[in-house]
Amino acid sequence: MSLSRKDLEDLEPVIDKAVYKVTGSDDSSLVKTAINCLYKGYDKDKTIYKLEALISSSKASRLADKLFAVHEDYVDHRKSRKRKEDKHRKYEDDYPKEAKKKREDVKEETNDSDPSPGQLTADKIKDMMAKAKTMIAQKKQEINFVEPAVPSFQPEMSEKGRRAAELQAKIQATMGIMSLPSLSGEVVTKAQTDALKQAQLSKPTPLILDEFGRTIDATTGEAVQLTHHAPTLKANIRAKRREQFKSVQDKPPEEISDSLFFDSRVGTKGSSRTKRSFKFHEKGKFESIAQKLRTKAQLERLQGEIAHAAKKTGIASAAKLATIQPKHDFAEGDVPDVEWWDSVIMKTNSYDIEKISQVLEGITQLVEHPIQMKPPAEPTKQVQLPVMLTKIERKKLRRQNRSENLKEEQEKIRLGLLPPPEPKVRMANLMRVLGTEAVQDPTKIEAHVRAQMAKRQKAHEESNASRKLTTEQRKDKKAKKIKENTRLGVNVAVYRLKSLKNPSNKFKIEANCKQLFMTGFVILNKDCNVVVVEGGPKQQNKFKRLMLHRINWSNEKKSNKNDEDSDDEGSEMTKECVLVWEGTKKNRAFSEIIFKMAPTELFAREQFRKHGVEEYWDLAFKGAVLEAAEEVNL
Predict the structure, then answer these.
(1) What whole-number distance in Å separates Cα of residue 561 and Cα of residue 563?
(2) Least-confidence region, from 72-86, 225-239, 490-504, 604-618
């Protein structure tokens, strides 16, 4: 059933009409689907299956029948046309050329000798002209017409005379007579001669063929090339365009200099590429580069080892502190002439003076009162506490609001703004509300009541579902309840732990910080473990209870005993978790909860110093040292 693209183009109007007859509309997508089925050669069942995606099954079956009928008609028509063409071609090949030429000569002779009944011959034209002259002469005699004298100059021809001259010229061209008096008896003028020549030029040239069947000129006898008419069929037009396009592609490109857009100032590259010569490297070049790289890597490795050793021993931090400390020009036991706190207000650099008031600068009898400023944690606007109502008050307020809403709804019903509500019927009050209607058709009334009850239940559930929060809204509500506003100040707490090796305790600290949306820093050291947390007051209370009461720090003691293989199992470690300090800060120092291993005390202090809170480590580490000293004394 498959057809070519050309055949489908010819069949497209027929298919469009068939689709319109079946569906009653011009659906371009349906037409394209039908054409695609014909092109791919689908059978009837598959064609119906493809068409059912766009129309109903009955219409798809009818349209498939029409498509197959159109296809069969087109195939039969194409076969019959092909048989006719083959028969005509065979007839032309079998018929001899001489018989064809003889038939054409006989046809020309019959055309010359026996003109058609409607055709004017030369003899007929002569008879017509003679009769016209005789009639004109008779008319002149009847009206006693006297011909006027012909003037010596050439008169201007009137419109009627010009038309008569043109008509006479055409008649002369047909008869082959060059000198013929006009119908009015006038002499043939120059204008008439020109009209005669024009008529001869407009006359079609006779077709004369030689013995080889070529067209020749009547005067010179040379072969003439006749103009060919352009093809009108689409296939011939496409073939002609294809030949033109192929000739354009085969045509060599024009030179750049001949182009209208050629700029002679722009230099063009030559067609041939210059030959490149070899460039050899000097001997030992890459060996020297490799040696430099090895030396550089070795130097970097040594620098890293030195820096690591300096960090372990504390030389690096001591060197930095030495650069920060001010330099003294005097010995350690010397007493300065003027103390640094007095040098600000004294003009001289010595205390050897009679009156101290003479050398003081900026000291007067006036008392300077500093500007009183508000604390940073105090809110700018006054906080208004919400009024807390009792249970009875809340019920009363709800009852009043409901009654007001009911009155407003009743007023709207009275004014006709809202339709009156249906009676609230239940199975219990069925007989009381409906009365005689329930007795007439109890089954119908019961179904009506149950439908009304289901409708009310559905409306109630939908209203509850509309007020129900989504998963994201519940998460946001919970987070909003836990989070606190810390723009005016942040509560900070510092805890010191003896040991934090148990992974469960680490997980509890980290998980609770994330759940309470707190930030902080946890440093892990063999002598002192520090936990710093930042958040609001409520968050700090919950975390404080976690650290001091909820976590069982005895697990850390058991793990330490197992690690050290100690025999003293009865001794208990006191103060496993200590609250070192709690207070407020203006801003947060950390963005999240961070755990960090610190092999040395200097490394731990450096981590806190990066965030600008090294005093937290100093407080915690000082307490750890004092506690260790007390244990040694005991």
Answers:
(1) 5
(2) 225-239
Annotate 516-542 with three-state secondary structure: CCCEEEEEECCCCEEEEEEECHHHHHH
The DSSP output letter for 54 is: T
d(CA 399, CA 225): 112
**Whose CA is closest to 126, among 87, 85, 177?**
177
pLDDT tens per residue across span 242-261: 888 777 665 555 554 455 66
Q: CA–CA separation, 18 vs 31, rounded Å?
A: 9
Neighbours of 425 (CB within 10 A): 19
Is 379 within 8 Å of 394 (Cβ atoms)?
no
Q: How far is CA 204 from the centre of its chain?
A: 68
CA distances from 609 to 325, 434, 585, 605, 613 (A): 18, 85, 16, 6, 6
pLDDT class for 593, splitting at 50, 70, 90?
very high
Q: By the 8 A CB rule, do 64 and 51 touch?
A: yes
Instruction: Give the torsion through C-alpha atoms of 40, 43, 49, 54, to 10 deg.
Output: 50
3-class SS letters over 205-254: CCCEECCCCCEECCCCCCECCCCCCCCCCHHHHHHHHHHHHHHHHHCCCC
Amino acid, res. 418: L
Strand partners, 521: 532, 594
In the chain, count of helices (H) and strands (E)? Answer: 21, 7
Q: CB 171: neighbour CB atoms within 10 A?
A: 19
Element (H, E) at 401: helix 391-415
Neighbour-count burial for 330-364, b at 16+ CB within 10 Å, e otherwise: eeeeeeeeeeeeeeeebeeeeeeeeeeeeeeeeee
Mean pLDDT of the chain: 77
Residue type, 177: I
Long-range contacts of 309-314 (CB under 8 A, 24+ apart): 311/600, 311/602, 311/603, 312/599, 312/600, 314/600, 314/602
The structure tokens listed for 213 are 């069947």
Helix segments in 490-600, DSSP class H: 503-515, 537-545, 554-564
Encoded tokens for 182? 């006009």
607 touches 523 (CB < 8 A): yes
Which residues pair with residue 523 across a beta bridge?
Answer: 530, 596
Token readout for 14 is 């027929």
Q: Which of 221-225, 502-506, 582-586 has the lowest mean pLDDT?
A: 221-225
Distances (CA, A) of 347 to 335, 337, 340, 360: 19, 13, 13, 6
| Euclidean distance between CA atoms 622 and 627, whole angstroms | 9
Distance in angstroms (rounded) separating the CA atoms of residues 370 and 368: 6
Query: 441's torsion region: left (phi>0), alpha (psi -120 to 50) or beta?
Result: beta
Element (H, E) at 580: strand 577-585
* pLDDT tens digit sequence for 8-48: 777 778 887 788 778 777 777 777 788 778 777 777 777 88
Give me the residue label for tokens 């806190």: 608
Distance (Å) of CA 111 to CA 66, 98, 119, 223:
52, 20, 11, 24
CA pair distance 150, 127, nearest whole angstrom:
29
**Which neighbouring-strand residues pair with 497?**
529, 577
Cα–Cα distance, 198 to 354 (Å, whole number): 146
- In the 3-class helix/strand/coil scheme, how is 297-342 assigned residue by residue? HHHHHHHHHHHHHHHHHCHHHHHHHHHHCCCCCCCCCCCCCCCCCC
